[in-house]
Amino acid sequence: MSTLLKFHRPLFSIPYSIRMVQFGTHRFHSLFKPKRRIRCVSTSSHSQPSIGVGGEWGSPESRELWLQNTISRKKEVFRPKTEGKVGMYVCGVTAYDLSHIGHARVYVTFDVLYRYLRHLGYQVTYVRNFTDVDDKIIARAKELGEDPISLSRRYCEEFSQDMVYLHCLPPSAEPRVSDHMPQILHMIKQIIENGYAYSVDGDVYFSVEKFPDYGRLSGRKLEDNRAGERVAVDSRKKHPADFALWKTAKEGEPFWDSPWGPGRPGWHIECSAMSAAYLGYSFDIHGGGMDLVFPHHENEIAQSCAACNHSNISYWIHNGFVTVDSEKMSKSLGNFFTIRQVIDLYHPLALRLFLLGTHYQSPINYSDVQLESASDRIFYIYQTLHDCESALSQHDVVTLKDTIPPDTVNSINNFYNVFVTSMSDDLHTPVVLAALSDPLKTINDLLHTRKGKKQELRIESLAAFGKILRNVLSTLGLMPESYSEILQQLRDKALKRAKLTEDQVLQKIDERTAARKNMEYERSDIIRKDLAAVGIALMDSPDGTTWRPAVPLAIQEQQVSIT
Ligand SMILES: [Zn+2]
């Protein structure tokens, strides 16, 4: 158990809110000292409102988080079992291939929940397993002539890399099945001793009829679970729905010794055993994709309760499916996308923005149109914040005052109110993303319009808007290390989609400038339109012509037809 214990330490020794404050410069830090207790309510414009754009957000009301609980089929207020602490287990991947966009959705969803719980001040122990012993891994390893454990280790690493690309924070612990055989064997023995399982010829089965609550999570009745009976009846099972806790090893398969002979665990038992090892039998949140409700999570509940009658998980949370061009994603339909395939052409944070653009429980439809839109949107967000940062960098810290105009304070409080209200209402991220529009527009007005440039305390307003946006984007996992770097990466992806190099675009710009000088407007127009068709927009200014990524014209037309 000593290897397990090391994971119980808090992930960070300083509160997350302080980490976020440190992201900014000392200039921002000194600016946002709230005068009094922070409130997230709109205030009258006649008095100087208080502002909470620092790390000290979070009135008691904002801590009330509501989550849709699959087991009760209701939205419930979140109450942790231990004040201030949360235990969360999310089912991880079976590591036999590259992860697909369905996986991206699951782990982005729970990363946002993890980040938001921490934003609310909870100390979260987040456990996400790796299935590294499984039929699919064995079959793939046979195909490739590779050792199953080394194959799964390789794909675990690929998955971890995908999570880094997608800005998913590392969980507190990532246990693997192959490292937890003693805990798994112990739990199976416990279940047999308690009378809920039986062994036959080296296999061990859970007896569903012994567990009257079986079906409570999924709403399925035991008699509904006989669908597969005609296909494959295992006469050794007492009931067709009985499922394997331990499988006897077949020739050439990896195996572990057990009281029932050499073999390996069934899929479901690993999550019961590993969640209990890291979080105990009673913890707060268990999550995963909707496809896991039955049989995986139903079986987990049965196993955990059979092993320990104090087993209790408060909230079961499941995210919806991903469809591709409105069809179910599947390898056989040829519409199956790995995360790597998607991020080859689109920036991983554009993929993340796209995923957060739909409520996590609803189905989400993946298409190039959606990814182009998300890429365009995220470019606008980062360009605005980059311009804001550039403007602020030209001002010395001593010129800044410890005051912010009341209109700015109201606008920021309203935005933050929408953020907390929406996130606390079962993580309504699409509402938060839509609410970004107002502060972004205000920043652009302050930076670029005549009226905005004349506004009193303009720099202070820009600093305040920049800070709130950074904090909200951090909680959504959308905050880049550097705006200029990510803008360049977004430009590079757009060039790749356009099948052009930057030099070729610059050459086209020169050709167009020359054509305009020679009053060959038709020719200059064709150059502009050709580039726009592949997602390269030209922007003319007194200083010359520059380019930025844009939604290709054909896709813009599709967007119009969709709306
Ligand atoms: Zn699981």
From TrEMBL:
The keyword Mitochondrion applies. Its cofactor is Zn(2+). Belongs to the class-I aminoacyl-tRNA synthetase family. SMART domains: DALR_2. InterPro entries: Cys-tRNA-ligase, Cys-tRNA-synt_Ia_DALR, Cys-tRNA/MSH_ligase, Rossmann-like_a/b/a_fold, tRNA-synt_1_cat_dom, tRNAsynth_Ia_anticodon-bd. PANTHER family: CYSTEINE--TRNA LIGASE, CHLOROPLASTIC_MITOCHONDRIAL, CYSTEINYL-TRNA SYNTHETASE. Gene3D superfamilies: Cysteine-tRNA ligase, C-terminal anti-codon recognition domain (1.20.120.1910), HUPs (3.40.50.620). Pfam families: DALR_2, tRNA-synt_1e. The keyword Chloroplast applies. GO terms for biological process: cysteinyl-tRNA aminoacylation. It comes from Prunus avium (Cherry). Residues 418-487 form the Cysteinyl-tRNA synthetase class Ia DALR domain. Keywords: Aminoacyl-tRNA synthetase, ATP-binding, Chloroplast, Ligase, Metal-binding, Mitochondrion, Nucleotide-binding, Plastid, Protein biosynthesis, Transit peptide, Zinc. It is found in: Mitochondrion; Plastid, Chloroplast. This is cysteine--tRNA ligase. Its EC number is 6.1.1.16. One of its GO terms (molecular function) is cysteine-tRNA ligase activity. It is an enzyme of class 6 (ligase). It comes from the Eukaryota. GO terms for cellular component: chloroplast; mitochondrion.
